[in-house]
Design goal:
With 476 residues, the chain is mainly alpha-helical. The chain has a domain of 55 residues. Helices cover 44% and strands 5% of the residues. Bound molecules: iron/sulfur cluster. The site of iron/sulfur cluster has 9 residues, from loops.
Length: 476
């Protein structure tokens, strides 16, 4: 990769240039989607970063090539034989991408529909993995055709729309989150409109999760009469109006008119502007819009979102598999044990995947201790146990927390939207549930070695060798 002299590009689109708060950074087939990093680049007049490598290759860095390759082959074998990650055995992730979990999440009652008014989408069969696999992705019913560099799992699909008003659209995706964001979140089951909305988001450089969440929020405001056609520039923004959805994505990308600006800057800003009680169903944490798991159907996901360093992110960490898909048989309705589950997963994700640059989806086919072995042989760090390796994750977890505390975040920011804490799910296996955050958060802080305000204690920071952070937080 590094010696091939092909330039690699990470760039922003028109939305980033205009500093839309939902702007992302696109690099080839992937987006650094969440948190508005595209707006940061835009604010610095930085359009793109282009890298060409020619001097060094992986051989120049690997500590013990033979052992490293042995560990890679071992892991690779596990991945290719897995019923989830193996393309040759028609693994679910390979054939249907992340959309393979749609039916399971919907059956668990946690596929947020019409701005989290319920957790079951009645038209799920029209937008699930097999449906996209048959009708939208190319080649049909096959492993993904647009994978990331050198990936063997092949979860990422290419989509083509051949007829209708969006004919000629060639898209990469859409995957689970985007199908949700432009699908059930907006009450839309038209696969072509969802695909077109995904294509336009990539074209303009907008985060699909946050944008779909925001449009769903605006649809609810419209249906409740909190905004009118005057505010939407004449668009009939009802749930289920696929044409309106695509038009609003387009306007968000160009930040045209009232509705373009409202949509492009996210749910929190839109609710502040609209007011009239809309804050109660503005579905974000710390300004970051919730993704495609309703935490009322998975208490642990509620804790994930509430205390995550960057707000409602489905990767900081992800307990939905254990809670909603029965991967580890964890009861989604219980709060017991969730603090520990979230803490451990946060630390493992931080070191094994986020720090190595490996794809998290590996975890579906190979355990994280395989990563620890590869890291040892690649770097020569020689962690003596998996536990020692995960300690690095704990340091990361504490350091990001310390950063947030220094920047003024407090316990009151570790919360969830009003609807999620107060409005019970109306149907499904978790009918009647809200997230019982108060039962989990204090225990979580305690397990982490943080005080009642969620600040890492001096003792914890010292134990982790983060003495410099003590000075930053406590001035000593
Ligand atoms: S690296 Fe991960 S996200 Fe990319 S195609 Fe492979 S499995 Fe999918």
């Amino acid at each position: 990769h590094m010696r091939d002299r092909m330039p690699r590009v990470a760039c922003i689109g028109p939305a980033g240039e205009k500093q839309a708060l939902l702007a992302n950074i696109i690099s080839e087939v992937r987006a650094a989607g969440r948190g508005g990093a595209g707006a940061v680049m835009g604010s610095k007049n930085l359009k793109a970063i282009v890298v060409v490598g020619h001097k060094y290759g992986p051989d120049d860095f690997v500590y013990d090539k033979e052992k490293f390759m042995e560990a890679v082959r071992e892991t690779s074998k596990l991945l290719s034989e897995s019923k989830i990650t193996g393309p040759r055995v028609r693994g679910a992730l390979s054939i249907y991408g992340t959309a393979n979990i749609i039916d399971g999440i919907n059956a668990a009652g946690g596929w947020p529909t019409k701005n989290f008014q319920t957790g079951i989408f009645e038209k799920v069969k029209e937008v699930n993995g097999p449906s996209f696999g048959r009708e939208i992705w190319i080649p049909p019913d096959s492993p993904g055709a647009r994978p990331c560099y050198a990936c063997q799992i092949l979860c990422a699909h290419a989509a083509v729309i051949r007829d209708g008003k969006y004919a000629g659209t060639f898209d990469e995706g859409p995957e689970y989150e985007t199908i949700w964001a432009f699908g059930p979140q907006c009450g839309v089951s038209d696969k072509k409109a969802i695909t077109r909305a995904d294509y336009l988001s990539d074209y303009y450089g907008l985060d699909t999760i946050s944008l779909g969440n925001t449009i769903g929020f605006l649809m609810e405001c419209y249906e409740r009469g909190l905004i009118t056609k005057e505010d939407t520039d004449g668009i009939d923004l009802r749930f289920g109006n696929a044409g309106a959805l695509v038009e609003v994505v387009h306007r968000a990308g160009t930040m045209e008119g009232n509705i373009g600006k409202l949509a492009a800057n996210g749910t929190k800003r839109a609710a502040e502007k609209i007011g009239k009680g809309s804050e109660k169903f503005a579905i974000h944490v710390k300004g970051l819009e919730l993704p495609a798991y309703d935490p009322r159907a998975a208490q642990g996901m509620g804790l994930c979102y509430a205390r995550s360093d960057r707000g409602a992110c489905h990767l900081r960490p992800w307990t939905a598999g254990a809670e909603m898909l029965g991967l580890n048989g964890v009861d989604p309705r219980k709060t017991e044990g969730k603090a520990e589950l979230v803490k451990t997963a946060s630390e493992v994700f931080a070191v094994a995947y986020d720090s190595t640059g490996l794809c998290l989806f590996m975890a579906f086919g190979a355990p994280a201790d395989k990563v620890y072995k590869m890291v040892n042989h690649a770097t020569g760090f020689n962690y003596e146990s998996f536990e020692e390796f995960v300690k690095v994750g704990e340091r990361i977890h504490n350091l990001t927390r310390a950063f947030n505390v220094r920047e003024g975040f407090t316990r009151k920011d570790d919360t969830l939207p009003w609807r999620i804490l107060n409005e019970p799910l109306p149907e499904g296996p978790c009918k009647g549930d809200v997230v019982k955050l108060d039962e989990m958060l204090p225990e979580y802080y305690k397990l982490c070695g943080w005080d009642e305000e969620g600040r890492p204690t001096k003792e914890k920071l010292k134990e982790l060798g983060l003495d410099f952070a003590i000075k930053e937080l406590y001035g000593e």
